[in-house]
Amino acid sequence: MILSLLLAFAGFSAFALSQDRHHRAVVRIPVSRSRIRGLRNAGWAGLGLSFLAAMASAGCSFGPVQWVGSLTGAALAVVGVIAFRPTSLRIIALAALPLAALIAPLALAS
Question: Least enclosed by CB within 10 Å: which of 10, 30, 51, 67?
Answer without folding.
Answer: 30
